[in-house]
Amino acid sequence: MTSTTLAKLDAVSTKIAEAAPLKTHKYFRIAVPQALTGQNLVLLLQEILHLDDTADAIHMATLLMHYGYIFPVIEPTQTVKDDNTLYRLQLPYFWPSNAVQTDNVEYAIYLNKRLMRNEQKHGLDEDEIEAYNKLVELLGHMWGFITVQAEMQLKMQKERKKSEKVVFDSEERAFWRQRRPGQANCLEQHVQKLEKRLRKCTAQNHRQEIERMKQALKTKPWLKALKASDTLVSWCESLQEYDAFLSTPQPSNPWVSDDTTLWVLNADSVEVPTERRVKRWGLSVHELVKDPIGRQVLETFLESEFSSENIRFWMAIQDLQNSPNCQVDAKAQRIHDEFLASGAPCQINIDSRTLEGTLRALKEGSMVVRRYAFSQAEEQIFTLMKKDSYPRFIRSAIYKGVLSAAQQQGSKRLGWRNAIFFTPMGNQKKTPMTAKHKMSRDDNSSQNILPKQLSSDSLPLKAQPPPPPPVVKK
């Protein structure tokens, strides 16, 4: 609110105070001194401001009430009514031009003074009681000074006449009801107007804008924006098939019907995932790892490549970051001993700089730092899985076997684990294993060799028939 606007409102309020027919009114056998009706106020504004329309005068009176120049005597209202509702002119001491800001100390003195008086007439409201308790905690170090000031003001007020005390009490209460500290009021300037004033353009601003536009002509950022928008559109189109609100789910949509079969088929503990669910794993590694069954299938694949410690480390970090504070230290130490310590049983492959930073954060950091001490290592391992392991997983026989089991769900009741172990791996001729065979990650035959059992997070497998005895050449 600018000083010019306040000066204009002060001038209008001064004219109203000079010409207003203030007198004592009767309200249900109660005398209300120095008041005027809303009808007289509207007629007075029409005369002073030369307004022809009554609605304009009512609007002007409402603005004066919102800014604190007038206030209703009996009940607080949001608009001025053109009837016999009683209003009172505010004391110039409480005008916004003279009281731009309000202080917590002044408000505490006012509330303390109210408590020292008759509780039945001057008791605090619920919001005032809450504000009083907060001020006691905030200003406890100077509460003695506040009490002395309240007693002095109350002593001075007792020397006034009864009618003057009634009027001043209503004026002071109306002021603090509208200008209480911490409460939004119409005098506060909107943040957009404040930013516009702070960002007033100068010659330097114009020169910077010209340089920015010249740089834009060289780099052509609109081409990058076009590529980004195309990427966003293609990504949304790829996910459209899996959105129940954009495409019809099978067998029915549980959000618009009472059939919950869709949620049952997509539960975390389901025996065979649906075809649409397995196909979604092929969109990105993020879609794969956020699915519990997808994580187990990926772990099975990584065990066949002797790198399952990567997914187990990533899952342990997710569990650590979502654990309560009392478990952070124990889980962080367990992760360190299992994945990062020298000679750890499941040691992961990260660079020395990341390892040193992680160990330093575990040793010297606070609890919050220890909770996220493995973030760099987690990002490095996840990037490795995303760029190296995930593409091979999508092309592997394990993923194709789970997808085939999902497609044949209606005819074959085989779980996804059995589908992995019973899926034929290519057209290679089966030969019995001998002692001469050696496992190697680079050997193509290693695709046929899967781990005997899943990790501890997976369900147990069914009993498999024993392997055939080795063939001995005579």
TrEMBL record:
- For bias type Polar residues, the affected ranges are 445-458
Record GO terms (molecular function): GTPase activator activity
User: Origin organism of this chain?
Assistant: Acrobeloides nanus
Show the SUPFAM superfamilies listed in the entry: Regulator of G-protein signaling, RGS, Transducin (heterotrimeric G protein), gamma chain, Winged helix' DNA-binding domain
Tell me which residues make up the DEP domain.
16-91
GO-annotated cellular components: cytoplasm; neuron projection; plasma membrane
Query: Which protein, by its recorded name, is this?
Result: Regulator of G-protein signaling 7
Q: Which InterPro entries match?
A: DEP_dom, G-protein_gamma-like_dom, GGL_sf, RGS, RGS6/7/9/11, RGS6/7/9/11_DHEX_sf, RGS_DHEX, RGS_sf
Question: Entry's Gene3D superfamilies?
Answer: 1.10.1240.60, Regulator of G-protein Signalling 4, domain 2 (1.10.167.10), Winged helix-like DNA-binding domain superfamily/Winged helix DNA-binding domain (1.10.10.10)
Coiled-coil annotated residue ranges, if any: 184-211
Tell me the GO BP annotations in alphabetical order: G protein-coupled receptor signaling pathway; intracellular signal transduction; negative regulation of signal transduction; regulation of G protein-coupled receptor signaling pathway
Question: Which one Pfam family would you cite for this protein?
Answer: DEP
Q: Spans of biased composition, class Pro residues? A: 463-474
**Ranges of residues in domain RGS:** 284-403
State the superkingdom.
Eukaryota
